[in-house]
Design a protein that fits this description.
This protein has about 450 residues and is of the alpha+beta class. It is built from 15 helices and ten strands. It has three domains: about 5-185, no CATH class; about 190-285, PAS domain (Beta-Lactamase, 2-Layer Sandwich); about 305-455, Alpha-Beta Plaits (2-Layer Sandwich), CATH 3.30.70. The protein is about 60% helix and about 15% strand.
């Protein structure tokens, strides 16, 4: 059974054959009219010639008008009748000079172009039979015998037919190879006209999207493009019409089952700028894999910058955030404070109650302290039992109040010591951390369970 693409091509070729037959009839009638207007030998039946020519013209016009309704097989009858009428024209002209032989040439070319060799040979045999009968009844005016004239016609038109059928056969083989590549390609190959409708599509479109070829050709391409991608698609098409070339454009196209498929396009304008040649590759699975990979990388990154025990950002996250907060504070000329909080006697607690109990203390402190902070503040697990708090846009006095509030909310009957330092807009991050750590040392040395403020850097 012929594929939809082949049926379309056969229908188009059949229509072309009908048009060629109609043109042959009209051109033949025109040739008769021209031969009667120009000087011509006398003795022929001009009324009969005019009548035959009028009939040919009328038949040609009717074929042109009803071209879409005339089956391809009817072209055989059109050619056969045209050849018969041409023989009658030669007979009615009264001479065998062959002034209408041009119609024979056209008939031969049409048969050789549109039909297989054997069918074209049958048309050629009919033409030779008609011409042989005509030569039998009409005397020659150029001194050649009827047999000689018939043989000349056989040789000359035979060469025309052989050359034409060979050219057509070679082109058909090349077209068949191209069609097989077109049909068997796993990529979605297509052509589209300037109105945005598909003209040709290979079977990969139906395999990937579920539509029939007729359904794909029935609506403009853009109607099935995702609404979020239409503006980009129209811009890409406009650039293509202006002589550009699409190499890796991607958009989403609606499949028949309602799902969206990501298509990656490469396309270019035909040399005559009447069609767009395009190749689309369905990269939906690749997009899903890329999305899963990005999601996995995001999870890995989150794990890399968060402490697994407490869920708080870790020291690596601090290394990314602290320089950003310092740069923001420098631009806005606003204060930035930093505190380091250490759970008192945590090692002794671990040794007495075990590491699981110590882990529980760390988790509870993280929850309590994180809940006591403002939205713009950040608490980080700095290492071991130490936590670091970033307090942007906070003066030293306000920062001390925040830290004292955290100390008051230390859970599980634990106490903590804290060291607080405010950035001077000049020192490095390491220096700022060093001053906060030094203040923490002072708080511990002073008996623990207290806050110590770092002095102004020298």
């Amino acid at each position: 059974m012929a594929s939809p693409q082949n049926r379309v091509r056969l229908a188009e070729r059949g229509s072309s054959a009908v048009r060629a037959g109609a043109a042959l009839l009209i051109a033949g009638a025109g040739l008769v009219a021209l031969s009667l207007v120009l000087p011509h030998p006398s003795g022929g039946n001009e009324v009969a010639l005019i009548t035959i020519a009028a009939g040919m013209a009328l038949a040609g016009l009717l074929c042109s008008f009803f071209v879409s309704r005339i089956p391809r097989g009817a072209v055989h009858a059109i050619l056969a009748v045209t050849v018969g009428l041409t023989g009658l024209l030669i007979y009615e002209s009264g001479i065998a000079a062959g002034q209408y032989g041009t119609i024979f040439v056209w008939s031969t070319l049409i048969a050789a172009y549109f039909f297989p060799r054997r069918i074209a040979a049958a048309h050629f045999a009919w033409l030779l039979l008609v011409y042989g009968v005509v030569l039998f009844f009409i005397p020659s005016t150029v001194g050649y015998s009827p047999l000689t004239r018939w043989l000349f016609t056989l040789v000359s038109l035979g060469v025309v037919m052989m050359l034409t059928t060979e050219i057509v056969a070679r082109r058909a083989r090349a077209d068949e190879r191209a069609r097989r590549f077109f049909e068997l390609s796993r990529d979605m190959l297509c052509t589209a006209n300037m109105d945005g409708y598909f003209v040709e599509l290979n079977d990969a479109w139906s395999r990937q999207l579920g539509y029939s070829v007729e359904e794909l050709r029935s609506v403009p391409f853009i109607e099935r493009v995702h609404s979020d991608d239409r503006e980009r698609t129209e811009a890409e098409a406009a650039a293509l019409f202006e002589g550009g070339e699409t190499t890796s454009f991607e958009n989403r196209y609606l499949a028949k089952d309602g799902t969206w498929h990501w298509l990656r396009w490469s396309s270019q304008l035909s040399p005559d700028e009447s069609l767009i040649y395009a190749r689309a590759t369905d990269v939906t699975e690749l997009k899903q894999i890329e999305g899963e990979r990005e999601e996995l990388l995001g999870k890995v990154r989150e794990m890399a910058i968060h402490d697994q025990l407490t869920g708080l950002p870790n020291r690596r996250a601090l290394e990314e955030q602290l320089p950003r907060d310092m740069a923001r504070a420098r631009r806005s000329e606003e204060p930035l404070c930093l505190a380091i909080i250490d759970i008192d006697h945590f090692k002794a607690y671990n040794d007495t109650h075990g590491h699981l109990a110590g882990d529980e203390v760390l988790r509870e402190c993280a929850i309590a302290w994180d809940g006591a902070l403002r939205g713009e503040d950040t608490i980080v697990r700095f290492g071991g039992e130490e936590f670091l708090v970033l307090l942007p846009r906070t003066s030293p006095d306000e920062a001390a109040e925040v830290v004292e509030r955290l100390r008051e909310r230390t859970p599980m009957e634990q106490t903590c010591s804290a060291g607080l330092a405010c950035w001077d807009s000049v020192e490095s991050a390491d220096d700022l951390l060093g001053r906060a750590d030094a203040a923490l040392y002072l708080a511990k040395a002073g008996g623990r369970d207290q806050l110590a403020m770092a002095g102004v850097p020298a």
